[in-house]
Design a protein that fits this description.
This protein is an alpha+beta fold. It has a domain of 84 residues. The chain is built from 11 helices and 16 strands. The strands form 6 sheets. A 5-stranded mixed beta sheet has the order 6-8-16-11-7. Strands 2-3-4 form a 3-stranded antiparallel beta sheet, with helices on one face. The protein has a two-stranded parallel sheet with strand order 1-5. Bound molecules: 2-acetamido-2-deoxy-beta-D-glucopyranose (2 copies). The site of one 2-acetamido-2-deoxy-beta-D-glucopyranose has 6 residues, from helix 8.
């Protein structure tokens, strides 16, 4: 038996021993400190990179991420709060928060069990390693320093509010609802950056942001949902000064949150209107929104359209579906408006949405989701 084989056996058996020691009954790793990731064993295997830490081993791959590879790792450490950040820690925090493509994205991908891009694959990255194993070591090291930095920042004395907009799959939403019902806590497998600016969080809930796998019918087909998480926590670290545009709070991974509320919020008033309500709405005068070209002016009534809608017994949902279909369905014939009047009319229709506008090609445009889901997350011990 060669030295290498013996060494391999020794490593394997010590890993197994360690594994037994840290594994709790449920099979979930206990007491795995994030600092252990700095000394994780990292080596390339076919089709990926193996990372061994705390007695377990995960394989990071180019696609098809491992489910929650760093589950069981404890990232929160209150014992260094208020300590001065080293130069390296400040720089790491600033890089992570301030430049998604150069740093944040690689950190995020690693957390999902994916290999971050090599420099030769994507020149936007500042992790310039030329092979995956070395890259993974670099990103792990960066991430541990990031957590060191975040843990040194003071935690707020009272719960602080921050918001995160994201599209999440149906199953994840159902799990959140279940957790609300049963009182079970939820957590995030990786670093999250909700914003202190609630209106900014809506930018991530637009139909433009829906996952490419089900775009543009994610919501219509109940595949993925626009969810606004409202954090109320004493565990978020204020890093807004590093990104004055997005004003983020940094939330370390694997913290427990109580799911205090899950609510559907209608953002297209027409979506829930009966025929009578819709007819009334179309037959009345309304103001344009302040971000629209015709701000200060009003639109409506549209008595002909109201009458036609009544005749067809169209409710708000039917009207929205008809609206989304384009002009093949008698829309223009029903409107009987001349070409020059289309723009004001469609601006009028798009003025009804309740979410803040998003930047479009020629200025602000409406966020046209019919509804969003608001989820309130609180520290398990509550906030009041
Ligand atoms: C989506 O869910 C809603 C509410 O549960 C339901 O009314 C609707 O029919 C569903 N749509 C599809 C396409 O499954
Ligand atoms: C629209 O409003 C006008 C004026 O109040 C009224 O005469 C008409 O009947 C209304 N149309 C519908 C379809 O309700």
């Amino acid at each position: 038996m060669g030295i290498a084989t013996l060494a391999a056996m020794w490593v394997a058996s010590s890993l197994m021993l360690r594994s037994a020691a840290v594994r709790s009954q449920s099979g979930i790793l206990a007491a795995c400190d994030y600092k252990d990731l700095a000394t994780a064993e990292v080596h390339g295997v076919s089709g990926g990179v193996d990372v061994s830490f705390c007695g377990k081993s995960v394989t990071l791959r180019e696609s098809g991420s491992a489910a929650d590879p760093f589950a069981g790792v404890t990232w929160w450490d209150a014992s260094h709060q208020g300590e001065k950040l080293t130069k390296q820690e400040s720089k790491t925090l600033k890089n992570h928060v301030g430049s998604y493509w150069r740093y944040g994205r690689s950190v995020a991908q690693l957390g999902k069990g994916l290999l971050p891009p090599l420099y030769k694959e994507d020149y936007n990255t500042d992790f310039k390693d030329d092979n995956y194993a070395s890259l993974v070591r670099s990103v792990l090291g960066f991430t541990v320093t990031l957590a060191d930095a975040a843990n040194k920042l003071p935690a707020p004395a009272a719960c602080t509010d921050a918001w995160l907009g994201d599209w999440i799959p149906k199953e994840a939403l159902e799990l959140l609802r279940l957790k609300k019902e049963t009182g079970r806590t939820t957590s995030f497998a990786w670093f999250q950056s909700p914003t202190f600016d609630e209106s900014h969080s809506y930018q991530f809930l637009t139909e433009k942001e829906q996952p490419s796998s089900c775009k543009p019918v994610c919501l219509q087909q109940n595949i993925s949902f626009p969810v606004q998480f409202h954090f109320r926590t004493r565990h978020g670290k204020d890093v807004a000064k590093y990104d004055t545009k997005e004003k983020p709070m940094l939330v370390l991974p694997n913290l427990a949150f109580k799911v205090a509320d899950v609510s559907e919020v209608i953002t297209d008033p027409l979506y829930v209107m009966s025929t009578a309500e819709l007819v009334q709405w179309l037959n009345t005068t309304h103001p344009y929104k302040s971000f629209q070209e015709r701000a200060g002016q009003t639109f409506g009534p549209y008595p002909r359209l109201a009458k036609e809608v009544q005749r067809r017994r169209m409710d708000g949902k039917g009207f929205s579906a008809w609206e989304a279909k384009g002009d093949g369905e008698g829309k223009y014939e029903m409107l009987e408006v001349s070409g020059a009047e289309y723009r004001p009319f469609f601006d009028a229709l798009s003025s009804r949405f309740d979410m803040p506008p998003r930047p479009g090609l020629w200025g602000q445009v409406s966020n046209e989701d019919p509804y969003i889901i608001k989820v309130t997350l609180e520290d398990p011990e509550g906030c009041d």
